[in-house]
Amino acid sequence: MEENKISAENGKRVYTRQQKRLVFYVLMFALPILQFVLFYLYVNFDSFVIAFQKKTPILGSITNGYEVVATGENFIKAWKFFFSEECGKMIWNSIQLLFCQIVIVTPLALLFSYYIAKEKPGSGFFRIMLYLPQVISVVVLGLLFQYVVGTVYPKAMEQYFDKEVIGLLLPSSSYEQNFTTALIFTLWFSFGTNVLIYTGAMSGIDQSIVESAQLDGVNSFQEFIFIYVPLIFSTVTTFVITGLAGIFNNQMNLHIFFGNADGNVDVFGYYFYRITAMNIASGGNASGNLMNLNTLAALGLIATAILIPLTLLTRKLLNKYGPSVE
Amino acid sequence: MMKKTIKKKFQPVDIVIFMLLFVLSLVLLLLLSWGLLTSLKSYDDFAYLGNVLGFPDLNAYGAKTALAFGNYRRILFSTVFQFSSTDASYYSSIFGYVENAPETTFTFANFLLNSFIYSIVCSFVHAFVAFACAYLCAKYKFRFSEIIYVLMLVVMAVPIVGSSPAMIELLRDLAIYDTFFAMIALNFNFTGVYFFVFYAHIKGIPNTYMEAAEIDGASQFRTFILIIFPLCAKVFFTVFLLQFIQTWNDYQTPLLYYPNHPTLSYAVFKMTRNTGGADKGQEFQGIPQRVAGCMVLALPVFVLFLAFNKLLMGNLTMGGIKE
Predict the structure, then answer these.
(1) Is the CB of residue B215 less than 8 Å away from at least one CB of chain A?
(2) Is B322 on the interface with A (CB under 8 A)?
């Protein structure tokens, strides 16, 4: 066992290799760990604390001070809101989004990835076209899309078909129209990453398996269903789990279409961002029907508490009942 | 024989997929083409003549200027934007004092500069921290490394909803809210998928490289920078580019945590909102001008994509890049 020792020749302290490694390790890790403790652990702990606080402005205070008291009131309000019609609609919208992602985007993304991985005609071009929306800002594509469906579509209908229609993705449009249009945009936008990751996973499949299946006479569809999908199913599982875990944070790009103030269509993620921003705009004094940040934090905790077991359960079920490689 | 091979490869299911992909690609191309054409139209052409779909009408008022990139020139060189600081006054108010911060004036050059500084610095910081921590976890066999690895898996798996109020409060407590330090602090983290990308790549590097360097007298830091970093340079650059694009396009983080230093993405979002009140003199009431702003925002990342598309679309997997 090596120990610290004083070099006989020059009197300097000699450190062992392990000690040098430890010093480097501690120095390099110190700041990132501090950041993690502060900006992840503390922030989430503070969210918990905020959810139990009630802030009351101190009357007559020239500094706009607040009296802070501990209370469980926020959870009662948040719980009631959770079962209100408004929240029910939001949750239903989030579920519809998740459902469409799983039932429409995932199978289509798998088919597209298979087509690209097999290098069928035009695959290079299609790969770029699918990935491009991930590169160009969602602000740009979202606004172009909104102008087209909101302004161009009614004008074009009037000019070319002499028909009066209301534009889409406008506060004046119907709830159903706005939700469906925003949903279509979000689904279209989500193909890129899916295809990129699935193509990567498919390129790692041992080609001898595919060739032996081809010798047995399988067609493209059978090859896709019985070889490609089972072999990359762990990647698919990861995407489904990520989609589920992020369902209450997904804003469905509604903030780009409607900004902060318009609640024509809500999903959970958009609601959180919108209400936080509206609290900002109201100077921190949420009034009327606007939920304050403390109740919002409580609502976030309730959503998290529901989502964690649901995510873990889905993961377990997918691992148990997903397609087997054998 | 050739025909037979092609027929075998291109089966009915492939035709269906081809058609679907073709439609999706066409939608994107049409949308971008419409944006480009509209940005070259004058306000009168689009709004009064109702030319929403066709090519720019040369007889419309201001058409020649617009066709000569007039909308772009106006945005880039001759427009002054004003951002009111209501967001900042709110945060001041909850923490004890109220001040009605004056409106701040910006030019498009300010937005561009803010965007470049914000995107380059934050992307580099995030990529480097993730890389350094992945290296420590992969190559330093301490118990703590294993704990961190498991912790990162847990962080990725556990969904947290609605922590932004607490984050804002912390930034205010640290007196870095609405400063560039806040943006660096937020990005100085190693949570997320890139940690695992680096981890898997570094894990595959034989330990003999580091042992040989140490025998030659290299310090731990020199080994990290001069031996490990060059071996991971390609992965690092790819992660940096991906992060750069994400940061460049991100408008919500600056909007919440950096409100008085608008980036281009944030400015375009504000500018294009009817209620944003971002532009002075109502110069951006017209869709062609707003679309030109969108095009300016898209251009830098589009150029990056053209230059590095193979790298960006290479298979960045948990085992590094496979092209």
Answers:
(1) no
(2) yes
